[in-house]
Amino acid sequence: MSAYLVLIGLVVLERLAELVVARRNLAWARSRGGIEYGRRHYPWIVAAHVSLLVAAPAEVWLLDRPFLPALGWPMLALVLLAQGLRWWCIASLGRRWNTRVVVLPGVPLVGSGPYRWLRHPNYVAVVVEGIALPLVHTAWLTALAFTVANAALLTVRIRVEERALA
Description:
Layout: H1 2-31, E1 35-37, H2 42-62, H3 69-93, E2 101-103, H4 121-135, H5 140-165
C-alpha cells in the first residue's frame, strides 16, 4: 500500500505541475485575446479528478484491495504511458495547452505531435489513466465510477471544445 500511496502522490504532484503550466498559459492566452469556453463544466472535471486521486487509495485501504502483480504491473505501465502521452500533448501545444478550453481567435489548430493522428489525444491519456491508476492496486470500483463519470464529462467537454474550435 505504501508504494501505491507514493504513486498517487507522484500523480498529485504531476497534476499540480499541470495547474502551474495551465495558469501561466491561461494568462498568456488572455493577453493575446484568448477566449475561454465551457466554464460551467470545468469544476466538475476538477472534482472528478480529485475524487479519483482520493477514492483509489481509499478503496485500497478501506476494502483491503490486494496488489495483484499480473494486473498491477501492466496497469502501472499504462499509467506511465498515459503520462508520457499527456506531456507529449502539452509539449506539442506549447503555450496553447490548458486544462480549460481556451481558443486564440484566428490561430490554426496544431497538427504536430500526437495531434497529427488524433483530434483529442490528451483525452485518450485521461481515459487510460482513469482506468489504469486505480487498477494498479485493484481498486476496480474507483476505476468503474471514474470511467462512467469521465465519459459523461468528456462528452460535454469535447462538444464544447469542438464548438469553440469551429
